[in-house]
Amino acid sequence: MRNRRFPKYPDDTDYTTNSPSYYDDLARKNKLIRLLAEKIWEYEETLDLTLEEINQRLTDYINENDELMKQRLEEWDLRLEEFPENVELLLQEWLSDGTLDHIINETIFSWKADKEYVDNEFEKVNKNVDFLSEESARRVKSINQSDFSTNFINDTLTDVGIVKRNNEQIELFAQNDYEGFYYTLQKDPNDDFFKLGSGGYYSNESNIEVVTNGSGWVKDSQPNWYTTNIGDSFTIEYEGTGIDITHLMDYRGGLWEFKLDNEIRTYTTFNKDSTEEKVIKFKHDFGKKKITGVFIGNDKKSNYDTPRGWLQKDVTVYGTLERNDVLEILHPTSNKEFAFTLKYQNESSIWHPEHSGNGSLFNNSFRVLADEKVINFEKQPLNTPILGKHISIQQRIEGFNNNQEIVLAKYRIKYDLSLSGIINYKGYLIAQEPFTLNTGYPLMLPVKSDVLNTVVTSQGNTKVNTGDESNYYFKNENGESKSVLFTTDISGYGSYVAFASLDNAVESMRYGEEGTPPRDEAVFFWQRPTLPKFYFQAFDRKEFKPNDVYKWSGKIGIGKKDQLAFFI
Fold first, then answer.
1. For the chain, which terminal residue's Cβ has fewer other Cβ atoms within 10 angstroms, N or C?
2. Which of 197, 193, 472, 481 is nearest to 340 (CA)?
3. Sheet holding 471-473, edge to edge
4. What residue ranges of the chain are covered by domains with CATH 2.70.98?
5. Rounded mean pLDDT, 448-467
């Protein structure tokens, strides 16, 4: 595949330049600069407020103690004025001969307030002040934490789509003319649930060879072909959003007549002054197209005896549905959008969705919408994409007990993919029977360890995967991170990221409710050698009654690091 890029010069810009891509890029960067400025403003405002609170608390503390000391001294002065003279003389005598010292320090307290004691007390005060400062800083960091799904800005995508690969795999994708990102929904082998599977990056350019017709074609000088016979032709059939046709230009060049969708255009390959390559670009909506070209002879500016219709043998097609240079980023296994272990009566616990071959989700009501229009996806032909600007998939399914006889819960799961290229999902659990939800999470992000190896939380904490199977808890965050990103320092993959966010962390994580894990263990990184995972754990032995409802929602995305508005 050629890596050349020929710049497109649009006619509808508000500037005149021979480098429009520079100004287009600058215009896009303005969005990122504006968002970064807003974040900095919010951070400074919150930090100022928090420091002001600490200062006010310390000032109030000093004022209160100062007022109390002043009051005690005034009372002491009053008592001294009323003190009997004979008692005062006796106390002065005791003070002189050491009797008073003995009574206070030995008889009453048996100790004295020495320098070590005072220093210890000051140390306690200093620790309390340090704690207040650290806690305030943590709160500021939590309030101003990044949301990687919001920071991700991809304004280059032009289409989203859905395609049935087979009866057990559906592919969602978002792409432009040159590249795209895909996500699969894979039917579980043991039940009826379609769960998020793999996801990654692909190129959707492809090169195809033109088909020539006629006897005058000369193909000795690759890649530049030509014909000298008027009436000779070529044909290109393709599927995509555009095509680049390249040809040579020199003093021997003649004229081509191209036809696309009943539109006829004439192109010259004549240039009397130099020899160069030229690219003819066709851009259109996605579809199957056919271009024909017929050689019609000499350019009127040329008097060459045997003009040539130049044409390069390969053309580049853009916006295809082919997957070239595929890079898998999300690991295809593991339940990403949710997983719960339910214990019913005296039975052993069961996973919803299943984890160990014991199917648990059945009777799936499955619906697909493209641009709000319901699609009969059951009858959709294989490998035939449906394109639009918004794709939605809805599943309603029942979760059973171990012997698959009793419905313990009903689930509603919805996925949405728009031109952001990010999967938005929402989940509902409606209890049908009493059960204990032992453990469970509303979001988990697993990646390929040979592509991504470093976790960054939305509060800016980083951990490189050790691959030692240990759980790493970000305890200093107190479970308050709402977003996570995987990046890497592995050579060749540094530009790619995967990220996930909870839409409503307080509700989805059930902070402060009964049946939750310790706050500082709710968010953790399982450091596996080939399948590293980041968890948002929301359950720890929560009792459900019939009609109890749990709602959660989140986002999962993949992309390139330079599409993040800012990177912690």
1. N
2. 193
3. 443-446, 533-536, 523-526, 471-473
4. 151-203+324-563
5. 93
Tell how far CA 267 is from the center of its chain. 46
Distance CA 560, CA 563 (A): 6
Q: Say how far residue 223 (Cα) sits from the centre of its chain.
A: 43
CATH number of 151-203+324-563: 2.70.98
Exposed, middle or buried: residue 171 (CB in 10 Å: 0-12, 13-18, 19+)? Answer: buried
Predicted pLDDT of residue 96: 73
R_g over Cα of the chain: 36
**Lowest-pLDDT range, 29-38, 146-155, 252-261, 434-443?**
29-38
Residue 100 — left, alpha, or beta (φ > 0 → left; ψ -120 to 50 → alpha)? alpha
Residue linked to tokens 């989203």: 160
In whole angstroms, give the CA distance from residue 337 to residue 135. 32
Secondary structure of residue 50 in the 3-state scheme:
helix
Lowest mean pLDDT among 48-52, 222-226, 263-267: 48-52
What are 226's two structure tokens?
A: 């030509």
pLDDT digits (tens, 9 = 90+) for 495-530: 899 999 999 888 899 988 999 999 999 999 999 999
DSSP SS3 for 308:
strand
For residue 150, the model assigns a pLDDT of: 87
Q: List every span in the chain annotated with CATH 2.60.120.260.
A: 205-318
List pLDDT tens digits, range 340-378: 999 999 999 999 999 888 899 999 999 999 999 999 998
CA distances from 206 to 175, 209, 486 (A): 14, 10, 30
Residue type, 308: R
Q: How far apart are CA 566 and CA 148, in angstroms?
A: 9
| Chain position carrying tokens 């074609």 | 217
- Report the topology of domain 205-318: Jelly Rolls (2.60.120)
Are 420 and 565 spatial neighbours (Cβ–Cβ below 8 Å)? no
What's the pLDDT band for 53 if we cut at 50, 70, 90?
Answer: low
CA 76 to chain centre: 68
- Using DSSP's 3-state secondary structure scheme, residue 494 falls into coil
The residue type found at 234 is F
**Token output for 320:** 């295809």
For 99, what's the count of Cα atoms within 13 Å in the CB-facing half-sphere?
Answer: 7
Residue range 478-494: average pLDDT?
Answer: 84
Mean per-residue pLDDT of the chain = 85
**Number of C-alpha atoms within 13 angstroms, CB side, residue 332?**
11
- β partners of residue 437: 342, 542
3-state secondary structure string, 193-248?
CEEEEEEEEEECCEEEECEEECCCEECCCCCEEEECCCCCEEEEEEEEEEEEEEEE
Residue 113 clears pLDDT 90, i.e. is over it: no
What pTM did the predictor assign?
0.73
* Token code pair at residue 508: 């989805």
For 89, phi then psi, to 5°, come to -65, -40
CB 553 within 8 A of CB 536: no
